[in-house]
Amino acid sequence: MNEQYNFIVSSSPHIRTPRGTRVIMLDVLIALCPALVASLIFFGWRPIMLTAVSVACCVLFEYLYRLLMKKPQSVDDLSAVVTGVLIAFCLPPTAPWWLPVIGAFFAIIIVKQLFGGIGKNFLNPALAARAFLLASYAVLMTSWAPSNFANVDAATYATPLASLSGGALSNVSLGAMFLGNTGGCVGEISALALLLGGAWLVYRRVISLRIPVSFIGTVAIVTLIFSRGNPHFLWMLQNLFSGGLLLGAIFMATDYCTSPVTPKGQIIFGVGCGLLTVLIRYFGSYPEGVSYAILIMNLTVWMIDKATPPRRFGVVKAPRTKKSEEAAK
Amino acid sequence: MLFKSHGGVHPNDKKAPANEAWISTIPQPPQVVIPMSQHIGAPCTPLVAVGDEVRLGQKIGEAKAPVSAPVHASVSGRVTAIEPRLNNLGNMVTAVVIENDFKDTPADTVAPAPEEALSDPELIAGIIREAGIVGMGGATFPTAFKITSGWGKVDTVIINGAECEPYITSDHRTMVEHPRELLQGIQLIMRACKVDKAYFGIELNKKFAMDMLNFHGAKDMGIEIVPLKCQYPQGAEKTLIQTITGREVPPGGLPAQVGCAVFNTFTSYSVYRAAYEGLPAIERVVTVSGSAIAAPKNVLVRVGTPMQWVFEQTGGFAKTPWKIIMGGPMMGLAQYDLNVPCGKGTAALLAFSEDENRTVENPVCIRCGQCIDACPMNLQPIYMYMYEEKGDIEMMQKLNLTDCVECGACTYICPGRLHLTHAFKTGKAKLQAYNAALKAREEAEKARAEAEAAAKAAAEAEKPAEPEKPAEPEKPAEPEKPAEPEKPEKPAEAPAEPEAVEETVEAEEAVEEVIEAEEAADEPVEAEEAAGEPVEAGGFILEPVEADEAAGEPADAFEFPDEPAQDNEAGGN
User: How large is the ipTM?
Assistant: First the structure.
């Protein structure tokens, strides 16, 4: 009987969760779908085209790089697809088709692969690409268009965020902002769609609530306390639903590779992102602060992780002998 | 009341196929192979010779050391060989091979203990020791020693019925089919431990077993059934103590330090059988399951039965087996030879087909941090792995790598398919080698310092003319002596901040001598054993229950000096 078989011997454990990297990335893609549908509804087919170009380029660049560098192929983990979608989500719907190509190159080759590929990059590739494009093609990256259903003059259109940055409440209704009937980047307009995606990620345990809640919560609290509009509550809600806050808090800040791994660290990271976002929105020359806030916090991840190790088992807490003695009685 | 602990993973428990299968018997094998070491501690010496007739339950091996457990013949028949055989740890150990005569003639010693003996702790412990009972969850720590060493310290007895490993149902079936006997066994353990309260932790997927035990009066016996959340590793000793009592066993410590003693379900049942039926630990319930198994079931298996026989008698394989595991899928040991005999701690035999293979060619960490959430010991597997790969001893120590109980939760959950547990086992070995080398260096330095001091003293004694220095030396000048410590005090040639990797290599060289020296130095047996094989010690565990006994010891033995910066000489001496 022995000779019949070739038994594998390895260290325990001998079973593994079915949820590998690819399944996790697939879950993220599923979670991104509502936002993609929202952009289709409000901006038409153009965002879909941008997304397709971006995804195709990301996958291609990753494939070529791994091929040329003679490294094990990694496109099948789907992380490049996620990056592609997120790059497109950071673009205005009016962007020319070649913009995501450049973005994809920067994100995949410079930010991700040069540092060793998935799990090694220290900046969020999509956000780094956005920052790069914004610096290089400022005009293209900030030409906003109102949604298909918005009853406004396209030429003089200002996004809600632009009004907020000017210190005034936006005239876009909260309901429109929540649904996405407004202007902004491809993927950031619909709060509803993003929250749906976030719920899926939490349900599937892809992300924990620590980063999104601490991030959004910090922005909410700070904008409520230091409100620049009246009513204060509306000011806060407009801040939450405008710009890339939800997209950033749910999909970008929670990027595994560029966020802390310790539970305490994740909360610190989220709070830091929130504070920086408000600071940049309030005092920066550029209306949106989310992407830079996350990029800056990305750089602190290593420090945060080191500073927040979990409590060692069996050390700090004194044994609760008294209580258990009482229980024994 | 539902208790919850930090960390943990939720693998599909896969218990369904064997959960409702009554414990059945299989035909006895024509030959049993009984290893002389089926426990943590000193191996036994055979008490029989080739050609001897042995009877069922007859003691055939014993060791005088306190941490040991005798072994008994599990069938009656004739001893045909006493030779090294492969055991479940992959080692060749002395084993007694008995040709079965299928008569099951019991030995004279197989008789119920007298009633009066069952009220005295020492006598009960004696019965347990004589019956060769060990931690049946897989750690196989001698139960009698656990009881006697806990006297005066232990105030809480915990019975581990979590059975948190997937697939295994042997404890569950024991609870359901022998609740009365099990409770009586627990009562004996409580009496032996001199406590009158026991907690019986059972995971919620065994509700029927809880009902059975309650129905049979667990409460009246002072045994509280504690429902536990289904979560791996709920049955790990430290985790179990924490969830039930709220106490945390300190790093490297033993449960007795927080007043707890944990016993496995089947151990308790074996205690009952030893006391009331006189039967030593020669038989146990084994779950045969896994994706390659044709008919999963629970069978009563005699100790020493080769795995092959068990598989054949339970219906064989439905698919080509790819991996054979003795124990649970999370902590069990993969086997490569089906002739390996089942032992006292074998709660399950699993055969997986290749469908279960989820290893990847190129494991990559994606920094998801799920390992940190999963770790029951609050460690950071992600960073431990990183530094272990680099061989960074200092960081491994800083991250408390030795706290790892090797439960495998992090490896299970890892989406990047990293071999985390494997790395930590290796890392522990590296740390141990390093510490041994440090110790060796310290001793050498001490010896050198003494020699130098002696030389100095001798040198000063030679010139007593100087009045400033009063006659310090008490010994008269011995001109021969200064010749001895010729060693020049050479400053380290190695760079100031040595590479950890090099240290390890050097350390490994040095460690062999040191281990020999330590063994000679009359160390307590269990420490010696555990220290000798830290990797296996935690690894062959079926449920992590008592794993720490073994895995924890080396941690105790380590004493890291205050200034690790001078380690460059580590291996040099």
Answer: 0.89
